[in-house]
Write a structure and sequence with these properties.
alpha/beta; 16 strands; 13 helices; globular; binds pyridoxal-5'-phosphate
C-alpha cells in the first residue's frame, strides 16, 4: 500500500488513542525504528523524545533484546500459566524481587499497566476481606493522578482527565485528597499532607488502600512533588491500617533518577505496579508486586485464592524481552546515565524560563517538562518539532520529553534545541 492509501484507510477505519473518528488528527506512518530514531515512510527520520510513552528505554531494535526474543520465539511464544511455568518467568521474578523495595516478595504478571493496577486493587480488597474488615471497599488517592484506562484504574485517575464526568453513575466513587503542591525541591510543610491525613482519619474504616504515583505525577500533569509527602503517607497508612499501593509504571527503572521513585523517600509499599519500560517497550507487559503479608492474608482468607488470571499471563516472549531489558538496566551504570541526561535537559531547556507564554520549565531524572500558559495546538507544535527532527506528543499545556536512555549528547542537544525553537515560534 502506498503511504496515502494507508493513511486514508487508517483515517476511515482505525481508532487512535483519545481520538475522534469524525475528525481524526494527523498521523505519521512509521516504517521502521532504530536507536533513538523513528524512520517515517516518507523518508524523514526523527528522534523519539517520548520513548513511545515511557517504554522504549533502551532505544529501538536493541540487539540484545532482539536476540533474546528471537531465541524465545524458537522455543515457544506462548504457553498458558495455569498449572505450567517456565524459566523466563522465574528468572524475571528473581531479578525483579532483587531490586524491588524491601518487603516485596511476590510477583503477579499481567498484560498491561492498567491491568496490573486492577490486580493491585483486587489484592487490596481480597486482603481486607480476608482480614475480616470487608467494610473497607474503597480507595483513596490524590487529584492529578493517572493509573490507566480500565474501569477501576480510571476510578482513581484525576476526575477531569480521568473522564469521571463522562462515565458518572457507572464508575465507583473513591476518595480524593488535593494533589501534593510542594515541588520536589521545595521546602516541606506538613500542611501539604494534612488533607490526606484528615481523609484517612475520617474514612479509614471504608478505605482498603491509598494508590498513587510516587514523586512524579505523569499523564495527570507531569508534576514532581516532595518526597516527604510519601514518608508522611507511608506512616499514615500504617497508623490507619490502610494498604499503600505505589504505581511505578511510568517512574520505574531509573526514569525519575532513582531505580524506583519511592527510593527518594526510602519507603516500601505493600503493593507496587510496574510496566512500560519493563520489556524495553517491546511488548505489552506488566507486573504487580506484593508483600508476603498481603499474599499470606489472601491465601489464608475466605477464597484462599487470588482471583485473577489473564490468558497471556507471564507470556514467554514478553518475559524474554523483560529479562533482557532488566539485564540492560542492571548491567549499565543506569543512574549515572540518567543524571547525564538530566543535566542535558536542564542545560538545554533552561533558556525557556521567563520566555513569554512559558509558565514553568522543570526537569527530574530523564524527564523534561515545559509547561505553557495556554493549551498547545498539538498538530502545529508537532509540525514544528518534526521539521527540527524531533517527535513529541504534547497534551494540554504540556510539552514534555522522556528520551530513550541511549540518547547521546549530540542527539540530546538536537532534542532540546527543537523544543526551544518550537516554543519560541509559539
Ligand atoms: C501508562 C500508565 C498506566 C497504564 O498502563 P497501560 O500499559 O497503558 O495500561 C498506569 N499508571 C501509570 C502511572 C502510567 O503511566
Amino acid at each position: 500500500m502506498n503511504i496515502e492509501a494507508l493513511k486514508s484507510f487508517d483515517r476511515e477505519h482505525i481508532w487512535h488513542p483519545y481520538a475522534s473518528m469524525r475528525n481524526p488528527s494527523e498521523v505519521y506512518v512509521v516504517d521502521r525504528a532504530e536507536g533513538v530514531y523513528l524512520h517515517f515512510a516518507d523518508g524523514r527520520k526523527v528522534i523519539d523524545g517520548m520513548s513511545s510513552w515511557w517504554s522504549v528505554a533502551h532505544g529501538y531494535n536493541h540487539p540484545k533484546i532482539n536476540e533474546a526474543v528471537r531465541r524465545q520465539l524458537e522455543k515457544m511464544s506462548h504457553v498458558m500459566f495455569g498449572g505450567l511455568t517456565h524459566e523466563g518467568a522465574v528468572e524475571l521474578a528473581a531479578k525483579l524481587l532483587s531490586v524491588a523495595p524491601k518487603g516485596l516478595d511476590k510477583v503477579f504478571y499481567s498484560d498491561s499497566g492498567s491491568v496490573s493496577v486492577e490486580v493491585a486493587m483486587k489484592m487490596a480488597l481480597q486482603y481486607c476481606e480476608a482480614k475480616g474488615v470487608a467494610s473497607k471497599r474503597k480507595f483513596a488517592t490524590v487529584l492529578g493522578g493517572y493509573h490507566g484506562d480500565t474501569w477501576h484504574a480510571m476510578s482513581v485517575c484525576d476526575p477531569v482527565s480521568g473522564m469521571h464526568g463522562l462515565f458518572a453513575g457507572g464508575l465507583p466513587i473513591n476518595f480524593f485528597a488535593p494533589r501534593p503542591e510542594i515541588p520536589f525541591s521545595g521546602e516541606w510543610n506538613y500542611s501539604d499532607f494534612a488533607p490526606m491525613n484528615n481523609l484517612l482519619e475520617r474514612h479509614s474504616s471504608e478505605i482498603a488502600a491509598v494508590i498513587l504515583e510516587p514523586i512524579v505525577q505523569g499523564a495527570g500533569g507531569m508534576r514532581f512533588y516532595h518526597p516527604q509527602y510519601l514518608r508522611e503517607l507511608s506512616e499514615a497508612c500504617r497508623r490507619h491500617s490502610v494498604l499503600l499501593i505505589l504505581d511505578e509504571i511510568a517512574t520505574g527503572f531509573g526514569r525519575s533518577g532513582k531505580f524506583f521513585a519511592s527510593q527518594y523517600a526510602g519507603i516500601s509499599p505493600d503493593i507496587m505496579c510496574i510496566g512500560k519500560a519493563l520489556t524495553g517497550g517491546y511488548m505489552s507487559f506488566a507486573a504487580t508486586l506484593a508483600t508476603s503479608e498481603v499474599s499470606d492474608a489472601i491465601s489464608d482468607g475466605g477464597a484462599g485464592l487470588f482471583m485473577h488470571g489473564p490468558t497471556f499471563m507471564a507470556n514467554p516472549l514478553a518475559c524474554a524481552a523483560a529479562n533482557a531489558s532488566v539485564d540492560l538496566f542492571l548491567e549499565s551504570d543506569l543512574l549515572a546515565n540518567v543524571s547525564r541526561i538530566s543535566k542535558g535537559l536542564e542545560e538545554g531547556l533552561r533558556g525557556l524560563s521567563g520566555v513569554p507564554g512559558v509558565r514553568e520549565v522543570r526537569v527530574l531524572g530523564a524527564i523534561g517538562v515545559v509547561e505553557m500558559e495556554k493549551n498547545i495546538d498539538i498538530a502545529l507544535m508537532q509540525k514544528r518539532l518534526i521539521s527540527r527532527g524531533v517527535w513529541l506528543r504534547p497534551f494540554g499545556r504540556l510539552l514534555y520529553t522522556m528520551p530513550p536512555y541511549i540518547i547521546d549528547d549530540v542527539q540530546l542537544k538536537t532534542l532540546t534545541d527543537a523544543i526551544c525553537g518550537s516554543v519560541r515560534d509559539e
